[in-house]
Amino acid sequence: MSQFNSGSPVGVALIGSGRMGAYHGETLARRLPGARLVAVVDPAPGTAEKLAAEWGAPAAYTDAAQAFADAAVNAVVIAAPARFHAELIVGAAQGGKAVFCEKPAALELAELDRAIDAVRAADVAFQVGFNRRFAPDWAAARALLDQGVVGTPRLLRSVTRDPGGFDPARVPADTIFNETLIHDFDTLRFLNPGAGAVEVYATADALVEPVWKDRGLLDTAVVTVKFDNGAIGIAEACFQAAYGYDVRGEVFGSAGMATMGDGRATGMVFSGATGRAIDTARSDQELLAGAYTAELAAFIDAVRTRRPALVGGEDARAALSIAKAAARSVRENRPVTIAEVAK
Amino acid sequence: MSQFNSGSPVGVALIGSGRMGAYHGETLARRLPGARLVAVVDPAPGTAEKLAAEWGAPAAYTDAAQAFADAAVNAVVIAAPARFHAELIVGAAQGGKAVFCEKPAALELAELDRAIDAVRAADVAFQVGFNRRFAPDWAAARALLDQGVVGTPRLLRSVTRDPGGFDPARVPADTIFNETLIHDFDTLRFLNPGAGAVEVYATADALVEPVWKDRGLLDTAVVTVKFDNGAIGIAEACFQAAYGYDVRGEVFGSAGMATMGDGRATGMVFSGATGRAIDTARSDQELLAGAYTAELAAFIDAVRTRRPALVGGEDARAALSIAKAAARSVRENRPVTIAEVAK
Amino acid sequence: MSQFNSGSPVGVALIGSGRMGAYHGETLARRLPGARLVAVVDPAPGTAEKLAAEWGAPAAYTDAAQAFADAAVNAVVIAAPARFHAELIVGAAQGGKAVFCEKPAALELAELDRAIDAVRAADVAFQVGFNRRFAPDWAAARALLDQGVVGTPRLLRSVTRDPGGFDPARVPADTIFNETLIHDFDTLRFLNPGAGAVEVYATADALVEPVWKDRGLLDTAVVTVKFDNGAIGIAEACFQAAYGYDVRGEVFGSAGMATMGDGRATGMVFSGATGRAIDTARSDQELLAGAYTAELAAFIDAVRTRRPALVGGEDARAALSIAKAAARSVRENRPVTIAEVAK
Amino acid sequence: MSQFNSGSPVGVALIGSGRMGAYHGETLARRLPGARLVAVVDPAPGTAEKLAAEWGAPAAYTDAAQAFADAAVNAVVIAAPARFHAELIVGAAQGGKAVFCEKPAALELAELDRAIDAVRAADVAFQVGFNRRFAPDWAAARALLDQGVVGTPRLLRSVTRDPGGFDPARVPADTIFNETLIHDFDTLRFLNPGAGAVEVYATADALVEPVWKDRGLLDTAVVTVKFDNGAIGIAEACFQAAYGYDVRGEVFGSAGMATMGDGRATGMVFSGATGRAIDTARSDQELLAGAYTAELAAFIDAVRTRRPALVGGEDARAALSIAKAAARSVRENRPVTIAEVAK
User: Fold this and answer.
1) How many angstroms separate the CA atoms of B43 and B62, rounded?
2) Per-residue pLDDT, D117
3) Residue C257: its chain A contacts at CB < 8 A?
4) How far apart are the C-alpha atoms of D320 and A222, rounded to whole Å?
């Protein structure tokens, strides 16, 4: 692991500056006192330079390898497209950099295993971007679970509905499982601490863009996950909700139920001639701004204190295994065990 | 008191069949097994006959005195205009009938005292239509107060906003105090058990129909009520709310706060392109249907069991005293003590 | 169909006076002006007599056939154990009585078909006790669907959680599907108007009483239902919720989402040293009192007006088909088509 | 006004490092990219040095005059005790520094006028710490007002309840008006744009600590404020709420009502054996963290852009005038006009 004084800020390189990368870059530059954005990496000519200048980062690279070789970089935040994640994790780890990687950490289990092996061998911190664990409602629910207040989980639910606006032509196969529901699979695990998924049944369809169904689009899905403690989880997703971005959770246990996610833009309520009206959040960055900052803060803290990250490689692997089983379940229209996909 | 077997239904005459009277008539005829509607009284030719036929009541009268003399009548429900209340209470009591009277039981304290004396002399049950005490939220809050869960009240609030549609030309002076806020004055007392009002400051205006202000209309008012236990109550009213009928309460005590009244038409919530929408109740009879039935059920029960009514003459007097003090406070723009008005 | 004047009350015989039967008897005797309870049937010696006396019903029988032969009986309300339903429906229909039957109308599809044939042949009104359709939240959601406000349904959810206290030894096999989730199966259909279920996947377990699992108890279940319009429904049930009786619904469509069921006992909210507290409903009769009355009112109205009942034989059959498919899906751990069970 | 390049960060000196000062210092050092904390001022020996080191501020002073003379200081944030505010504002303005001052900007109107004159003469930005204007619920309500959605305000309410733990011996006279309710007086004005207060009636008592009443403590108060557009405002405060920190608002206008402040700690809801439970916010810094940052961000922005601050000297004066009238109203138990106190 690269050397740095635990009292000084952690030097971070941002890799990828798309929608989510830009948000993380802003956070590293302006919202996290313990981090210092020291490099921006983007392959598009000029992009990294422009952002580095805007954020006051001393270095701009077009190749991630340059960041891996930069001594000022203690850690990387990977927000490149998912298909590059595993390779970037391996490279960063081999360069001795701590790694925060957006979800999914990889698109195939074999790649993910290679990445996990690399961070283990390098003994660097590794955290995956399962941000919902850092959202206040979810963290509060987990605290109740840990205190025993909810009892043993019996039924769980996790919902993700995006506000729409996607281009069906650019959605890779299984995106709804690998990139959207992977949050919900992790959330079900987070809300059922210590339990493991054993079998998955999924059903999915193209209900938002039905004409794209023949080309393999799945934009709406329901996944049932059986856990080894008997609990049954339901993960639901849809790529378009008329009312904005909708993220909710529920854990029902032997002693009670916690529900998460109210989707309100603010607590202001207007009562008028047509009744009562409440604004709803329209984007993930509006709804989850705090969680996006908190997950990076936790990562920086793990790097500084050399304590393990709160969401690591095993969590990434468990969620990806459920995603793989779900995709196969849809194709074969039968329940699929985790053992079948996660040898 | 007229004789009747406590096992048989209580024979009730309805006096007055306007908006509220019609609702009570329907309740007596169809919603209350222990009551039997035996007479309808209305001075308008043919009205009582028509309603009696519709409700299966055996008798129809144009003069309340006929009901007071009818042996089948054990009790009366008075829903005539407020200016006739006191006289009708006296007549009913002298006829030996138990009396339920819509609020306000009288428009002047002297009249009310005469009515109270009459029911006492006749030893008949007497209940005033302060229905909010019978609404589930308010009853639940009072139960918490009685259990000590709220602690000693410090601040109280009671709100009444009507849905509008009133005719400013037909609103008698001080209606907002005598007929609307009288509910809130009673509610403040109900939520501050055992305490008495000592001083009142009120401010009021014609904000809904400003052109009528010169003719004495007051359609919006705020009244501060100081109680002898130090608690301060606020009663608010307006004759027109764009979103329907709005009745709310709040009691803040040393150990916590209870709030009452959410105004929703149902628990169904719709989230759509403009955000989240909830229907609001549009009328008192929609919002308080249960309370209107419950208050008559309690009255019938008091008659059958010969136990005192839950809201009696003293409550009517206390609320009317606050109303009188509030009206004077507005005229003289100064705090007015209850002692000044309620000698 | 038995003759009666549409202006006079409908004479009703109550068949079965257990928990739900007693509630319906009370409603028929005291809450529904258009109905007259004319007979009570219960096989236990003395039970019918006692209740008939309490409710003022002129006749008490130990055999339903006596009610079917009673000319004062225009209609029956069947609340006997489910295994007797089909036979009672047939008998009542053959006696020319209109039939309201508690859900499930039968435990087997063949029996149900016989019952449906009988009511058709007799041309009598037939309504099944799917009360949730009459609960205000659900009725309001359906109204939005009918107005097109929700758009085309994509994802649906219906939840039933009982407050517990059941005796595992007395729960027949598949009760969670046939008697509990059958409400949710009907609700999913109610919230997806015009669509038909095509395939079901169910998973279930004994999580409340795990020691009874070997004896076939299933007390917790999740059922995924695919509809022919592409919508995916989720029905969830558990026999024990620590917080009381929990009934909720959700329909998410192309234009928005309606949610139903807030489970609050009243709208009163208490804020105290431990935070904010809201009482939850503890029983179905507390939460659904209005729906229980409304469904009987609708039935009486259908009888009087000779219009078809709002929830009839086809609805009973569709819900039972889903229940049958769900039970088989659990046994065989595979998706089961409706066509397989509902030949 | 001191010179600085609008592209470079605004150099800020923090004056006073108590509870609120420490929070502002943290914000300036770590949460606001456009600000740079360049000096900390605290009269207690060693305090400024310690905090300056922690926050990386280059200068630490025991005398504010040193900051006023420091060329690196473009602006000051005053969080010293209220009795020093006016004098500090004058000093800062004379030094050419922009001024953010915690509320109240002064304890007497004459002092405040002197401060306002000084900032005007120096032509520096001046903002007062009325943070509620920057809280999301309140900002959203004001947006609706500005769009005309609420119509003309008729009734307004603003509530502040502190979580308690105060020392009655250290509460100066009229603190509840000058330091607590001054937020609510400003909020009433904020929710009634363009209107001016004309008359005030206040009632107050020592209900939390009744034994201190004789020594002049007022810990609970209700203030009615009449505005020149006819609207009636109610401001309420109490120094101790069992359930935490409670800040709410309501504006009821001709076209509808906006309500603000739900007091929840998170959106997580737990339903258990005792019903439903929601955590409430326990401190202002928990509930208003975002508003505290947003008000400083707005100030920094005003300094950089040389646009007027959103809450300036006139707002401070208007709120203090209401506070003065309220205090006199309590002493004289009569309505007091603003004209009487704010010559």
Assistant:
1) 4
2) 98
3) 241-243, 246
4) 58
Alpha-carbon span B137 to B263, nearest angstrom: 11
Residue type, C159: V
Q: Are B102 and B84 in contact (CB under 8 A)?
A: no
Q: Do B243 and D259 meet the contact criterion of CB atoms below 8 Å apart?
A: no
Strands, sheet with B126-128, edge to edge from the N-terminal-most edge strand = B59-61, B35-41, B10-15, B75-78, B98-101, B126-128
How far apart CA A72 and CA A40 sit, in angstroms, is 12
Q: Residue A35 — pLDDT band, cuts 50, 70, 90?
A: very high
Q: Do A270 and D264 touch (CB under 8 A)?
A: no
B5 pLDDT higher than 70: no
- Residue B229 CB partners (closer than 8 Å, separation 6+): B152, B153, B192, B194, B195
Alpha-carbon distance values, A23 to A16, A28, A158, B17 (Å): 11, 9, 24, 67
CB of C343 within 8 Å of a chain D CB? The answer is no
Question: Burial of B84 by CB count in 10 Å (0-12 exposed, 13-18 middle, 19+ buried)?
Answer: middle
| Secondary structure class of D124 (helix, strand, coil) | coil
Q: At A219, list the tokens.
A: 């934009």
Taking 50 as the threshold, does the pLDDT of residue A3 lie above it? no
Q: How far apart are CA B21 and CA B47, in angstroms?
A: 12
At A33 the pLDDT is: 81
Q: Which long-range contacts (CB under 8 A, 24 or more apart) does D162-167 make?
A: D162/D237, D162/D238, D162/D239, D162/D240, D162/D241, D162/D245, D162/D284, D163/D240, D163/D241, D163/D244, D163/D245, D163/D282, D163/D283, D164/D208, D164/D239, D164/D240, D164/D241, D164/D242, D165/D240, D166/D219, D166/D239, D166/D240
- Which residues of chain B make contact with D226, given a CB cutoff of 8 A? 203
E strands, C88-245, are 98-101, 126-128, 153-161, 197-205, 220-227, 232-238
Read out DSSP for B209-260? Answer: SGGGGGGT---EEEEEEEETTS-EEEEEEESB-TTS-EEEEEEEETTEEEEE
Shortest alpha-carbon distance between residue D286 and chain C (Å): 14
Per-residue model confidence (pLDDT) at position D3: 47
Q: Which residues of A264-274 are buried (b: 16+ CB within 10 A; e: fewer)?
A: bbbbbbbbbee
State pLDDT tens for residues A135-163: 999 999 999 999 999 999 999 999 999 99
How many beta-carbon pairs under 8 angstroms link C with D? 54
* Domains and their CATH numbers in chain D: 10-124 (3.40.50.720), 132-288+319-341 (3.30.360.10)
pLDDT band at residue A342 using 50, 70 and 90 as cut-offs: confident
DSSP one-letter code for A263: -
Q: Please tell me the distance from the alpha carbon of residue C341 to that of residue C328, in angstroms, as a whole number.
A: 9
Segment C65-93, tens digit of pLDDT: 999 999 999 999 999 999 999 999 999 99
More reliable by pLDDT, C4 or C156: C156
Cα distance between residue D295 and residue C42, in whole Å: 72
SS3 category, D140: helix
Residues 261-280 of D with CB under 8 A from A: 261-262, 264-273, 279
Q: Is the pTM of this model over 0.90?
A: yes
Helix (H) or strand (E) holding C14: strand C10-15
pLDDT band at residue D212 under the 50/70/90 scheme: very high
Q: Is D213 exposed, middle or buried (0-12, 13-18, 19+ CB in 10 A)?
A: middle
**How open is the CA angle B58-B59-B64, to the nearest 5 degrees?**
150
pLDDT tens figures, B179-210: 999 999 999 999 999 999 999 999 999 999 99
Residue A117 structure tokens = 């092996």
State the pLDDT at residue B31. Answer: 86
Q: What is the mean pLDDT of chain B?
A: 96
- Residue C3: its pLDDT value, please? 46
